[in-house]
Design goal:
- About 25% of the residues lie in helices and about 40% in strands.
- It is of the alpha+beta class.
- The protein has a single domain, classed as Sandwich (Immunoglobulin-like), CATH 2.60.40.
- Strand 3 and strand 4 form a beta hairpin.
- It comes from Hymenobacter perfusus.
- This is Fibronectin type III domain-containing protein.
């Protein structure tokens, strides 16, 4: 019986560590010609690092943008996103969280930047004269 209790306790501890590798927030926000990525990781004692990737349209593969230490700030600014993307097609970001129990992957796409009233008005004026 004590062996069973010890094995159960070890399994419970390992599952808690695996569950602790969760990211509660991963989002991308467009800021001009850049994309700001941010994430909020739940308490993650077993994290050994983060990898940030981008998939440019029309490519099928992800290119690694950065490898970050577990103590790094939970954000990344991609300043080259629209310089390398042909025609500003769809972009997908991936965050890999490396832990002692394995790899967890999260995906997101950039949300559009808030347009100002001036930009919307200028676009409307340009449409009137086409």
């Amino acid at each position: 019986m004590p062996r069973t209790a010890t094995a159960l306790l070890v399994l419970l501890l390992l599952s808690a560590l695996a569950y602790g590798a969760g990211v509660t927030l991963f989002r991308a926000q467009t800021q001009g010609d850049s994309v700001h990525l941010e994430w909020n990781a739940a308490h993650e004692p077993g994290v050994s690092g983060y990898d940030v990737y981008r998939q440019d349209y029309p490519a099928d593969d992800f290119d690694r943008l950065a490898r970050l230490s577990p103590t790094a700030q939970p954000h990344y600014l991609d300043q080259n996103v629209y310089r390398t993307t042909a025609g500003r097609g769809p972009v997908i970001y991936r965050l890999d969280v490396h832990t002692a129990t394995g790899l967890r992957t999260f995906h997101t796409t950039p949300t559009p930047a808030e347009e100002s009233m001036m930009v919307r008005s200028w676009d409307t004026i340009k449409l009137m004269f086409r």
